[in-house]
TrEMBL record:
UniProt keyword list: Apoplast, Secreted, Signal
Organism: Cynara cardunculus var. scolymus
Signal peptide: 1-18
Location(s) in or outside the cell: Secreted, Extracellular space, Apoplast
Protein name according to UniProt: Dirigent protein
Quaternary structure and partners: Homodimer.
Domain of life: Eukaryota
Family according to the record: Belongs to the plant dirigent protein family.
Amino acid sequence: MKSIFVFFFFHFLTLSFANPGMKRQHYPCKNLVLYFHDVIYNGQNAANATAAIVGAPQWGNLTILADKFHFGNVVVFDDPITLDNNFHSVPVGRAQGMYIYDTKNTFTAWLGFTFVLDNAQHKGTISFIGADPILVKSRDISVVGGTGDFFMHRGIATIMTDSFEGDVYFRLRVDIKFYECW
Ligand SMILES: *[C@@H]1O[C@H](CO)[C@@H](O)[C@H](O)[C@H]1NC(C)=O
Ligand SMILES: *[C@@H]1O[C@H](CO)[C@@H](O)[C@H](O)[C@H]1NC(C)=O
């Protein structure tokens, strides 16, 4: 009997030393799934475009995304946010910010943008920052803060390319998980 107790005692010690941080379980305090739609200006779609190339490398221009995986392009956007994946749904806010293509040998971007939400369910802003390895199906970026209904909120957003049409349109699904609410 005593030896069994000693065994379990040491087993417990080993477990707790092996995983010092294991105790904490984190669950989101709030979830939100939203979509946004990016229509890049391509020289012909001025009325419909929601994004513009504002920076290009020496070998590119401001009309067409550059060769070499668009490396060096900077795009500013003011994109509609919708509750579902339909481009024509009534927007619930705007996704405003920029992305920078920042790898020379594959497609990746750096995202920095804010969701400005102004509708019956949500009023406030949510700000995002992070690396976006575009070719990966599901990637995580940081939710660095918020205002209004999202005052002092932080968390992680899982983004997925829900659809795209060449270099002109893409739709992102943004699955926001707040781990700090207020
Ligand atoms: C921009 O670059 C593309 C691709 O190289 C080219 O087809 C287009 O003519 C250029 N546009 C301008 C305005 O220079
Ligand atoms: C605007 O762009 C979207 C995405 O490419 C497309 O579905 C829509 O038909 C376009 N609207 C107009 C008026 O061109």
